[in-house]
Write a structure and sequence with these properties.
- The structure is a single chain.
- Strands 1-7-8-4-3-2-6-5 form an eight-stranded mixed beta sheet, with no helix packed on it.
- The chain is mainly β.
- The protein has one domain.
- A hairpin with a 2-residue loop joins strand 5 and strand 6.
Length: 93
């Protein structure tokens, strides 16, 4: 499941109010579930496994018992660094 617009090879666009929910996956990695907007009552736009190593865009981090939520405040790019690592950067980076 990935309905995010592509932004290049191994990169996808995230909207300004996207929420990235990060929790543990069964294989020891993290499960990243991406919602277009935290306020919208819609299913997630994408799910990927790996580790979110950095968020380089204006955001708020909310800790949860099973992980955390990165609530983005600006448009961003989700980029795969390698098989198990992801970075979220601003669109002007």
């Amino acid at each position: 499941m990935n309905r995010l617009p592509e932004a290049g090879a191994d990169a996808w666009r995230l909207p300004q109010h996207a929420h990235v929910v990060v929790g543990e996956a069964g294989d020891g990695n993290e499960l990243l579930t991406i919602y277009d907007c935290g306020a919208a009552q819609k299913p997630p736009s994408a799910q990927v496994t790996g580790n979110l190593v950095r968020v380089r865009v204006d955001h708020e981090t909310v800790r949860q018992p099973t992980g955390y939520i990165a609530k983005l405040r600006a448009p961003a790019i989700l980029e795969r660094q390698d098989d198990d690592h992801w970075v979220i950067s601003g669109t002007d980076n």
